[in-house]
Amino acid sequence: MAARLLDGAGLARTMRADLQPHVHEFTARVGRPPGLALVLVGDDPASHVYVGSKRTHGTEVGFRVDLHQRPATTSLEEVLDLVRSLNADPAIDGILVQSPLPAAMGSDAARRVFETIDPAKDVDGFTAENVGRLVQNREGLVACTPAGIIEMMEREGLTIAGTRAVVIGRSDIVGKPMALLLLHRHATVTIAHSKTPDLPAVCREADILVAAIGRAGFVTADFVKPGAVVIDVGMNRVTDEADVVRFFGEGSKRHLAWQQRGSVLMGDVHPRVEEVAGALTPVPGGVGPLTIAMLMKNTLTAALRRQSL
Amino acid sequence: MAARLLDGAGLARTMRADLQPHVHEFTARVGRPPGLALVLVGDDPASHVYVGSKRTHGTEVGFRVDLHQRPATTSLEEVLDLVRSLNADPAIDGILVQSPLPAAMGSDAARRVFETIDPAKDVDGFTAENVGRLVQNREGLVACTPAGIIEMMEREGLTIAGTRAVVIGRSDIVGKPMALLLLHRHATVTIAHSKTPDLPAVCREADILVAAIGRAGFVTADFVKPGAVVIDVGMNRVTDEADVVRFFGEGSKRHLAWQQRGSVLMGDVHPRVEEVAGALTPVPGGVGPLTIAMLMKNTLTAALRRQSL
Q1: Which CATH number fits the domain that encloses residue A222?
Q2: Among A34, A203, A261, B127, which one is least packed by beta carbons within 10 Å?
């Protein structure tokens, strides 16, 4: 039996539609719309696509969205100054600095920039203050990808309490916050990673399996307990035709797409997991749109809290 | 075969002895000793014992220890003012406010007091800033009990990387930071709790089992994989003679102790686990002394960082 596909794109549309009346009410009461500042430094093509999408969706839900674009030659100090001025701007409720920053800024640049963002405007949930509040299950702003996954699971009526959940990957922006959010909803949570012995066996314990590793098709059917909910956070570009054929089959839709574009996008979860899982997020169209919808929700949340509404 | 008993009290003595030359060097270079401020509000007898022990050990390693004792009638605002003055005092490197605060201060009092402590002086590691830094595996101050357990495991040569660890209990001050510390040392970590189905089976997966629940003798032999390392964070007072006899046997040392004092202390781990585990921390004399030794180490660390040493 094929897994139920969780329509992240559709849910994201619903989430944005649900936000709109609240955004209009905020604008009417406060006399200005919620303000979201997007900071984009350098020429990374994927970053331009992401920021463009955030801008479009933000504008659609009724925010004021300011895009601050800077060349790759910008100094770290200039970015920090920009963030400080956005912190001080009363019409800005959310600040998002798109990663990655240009390598020339140094390996610690992103961390220094994130830590300069006022935690009350930190709509990515990346500051230590917001991460600590998440651990302590207190009011704060939570990283958009894991928060979006929880929102989807709750809207889809998927049970979290009392389940066993396994999160593969221990990044600061997905794996660790995901584990904490599931824990606070009373799952028994295991965090697995590259050093986990017999990873497939550990993953087969999971009623909820979250894959956030960044390796195309890594999670094969033998990782999955029959009927489990599988959340695929990966977004990998596959360029080798042999890989595309191996994953999706000769003459498949993805194979045809590869023939047209020379690459296809796929998640960390192997296509055949669909035959084992109970529910599954597709890639693309699963977690990605939820992440951006959650950014909109975080921005509204930040705006409301800053007005004590 | 009986488990090897991990001598927390002995290790704590070694840790303190290791600190002493660094404390003397700090004092010589900076012209004053590291300063630790202990704040004790109200009449809780256990709190008086704990604070007394922290004061004694701090003085022994060469700190200046200031005890700020206040009556149970003190207002929250007075405690916050005291903390603010300690934040501003350049001779104070570490601030510890003993929990619990008097109930009359309100349920949110401890949280408000902890958040007022300068994160650079937060030697308990309770502020959101320090908790967030722990998640992000960055320099900060880490809660003393889990940090002390890691210190013990490393000094005892117990392997963490590549193991499966299960932490029972998800408190902010033990369970969650413990899980993060083990994760960062490459264990595959599961956080289990009261809502975990078939808890004994989950715990039997563990090479390292940390019990931090607060229920006397709850972790029985059937929770433990033979040879596992079992860390007992519990410290429970048992007053019922029938319980003492059931746990330790008629005429046992603890039973005799109960006959003299009317109660005995014991951990979350049942005495018979000693027959199954590979290594085990006793209660008392295991995790407790390590916690206080770690407080000393955190205070020295805070003092050195504040001087950029």
Answers
A1: 3.40.50.720
A2: A261
The reported pLDDT for the residue numbered B88 is: 98
- The CATH number of the domain holding residue A112 is 3.40.50.10860
Chain A neighbors of B190, CB-CB under 8 A:
188-191
Q: At B54, list the tokens.
A: 């922290």
Query: For residue A161, which residues of chain B lie inside 8 Å, CB to CB?
Result: 195
pLDDT interval class at A181 (50, 70, 90): very high
B202: left (phi over 0), alpha (psi -120 to 50) or beta: alpha
A55-77 pLDDT, tens digit per residue, is: 999 999 999 999 999 999 999 99
A53 touches B at CB < 8 Å: no
| Residue among A127, A132, A196 whose CB faces B188 most closely | A196
Q: What is the pLDDT of residues B54-83, one digit of tens each?
A: 999 999 999 999 999 999 999 999 999 999
In-domain check, residue B134:
no
B54 is catalytic: yes
Note whether A183 contacts B196, CB cutoff 8 Å. Answer: no
Q: State whether residue A196 sits within 8 Å of chain B by CB.
A: yes
Q: Cβ of A186 and B195 within 8 Å?
A: yes
Q: Which residue shows structure tokens 């605002």?
A: B77
Structural domain boundaries enclosing B51: 31-119
Q: Are residues B115 and B150 in the same domain?
A: no
Q: For residues A133 and A127, give the distance between their C-alpha atoms in angstroms, rounded to a whole number.
A: 10
Residue of A135, A161, A188 lying closest to B176 (CB–CB): A135
Residue closest to B297 by CA, chosen among B28, B29, B9, B23: B23
Q: In chain B, which residues have their Cβ closer than 8 Å to the Cβ of A164?
A: 197, 202
Same domain, B191 and B83: no
Instruction: Measure A179 CA to nearest chain B CA, in Å.
Output: 9
The answer to whether residue A8 sits within a structural domain is: no
Please give the average per-residue pLDDT across A73-101, as a whole number. Answer: 97
Residues 6+ apart with CB under 8 A from B151: B11, B15, B290, B293, B294, B297
Q: Tell me: do A92 and A222 sit in the same domain.
A: no
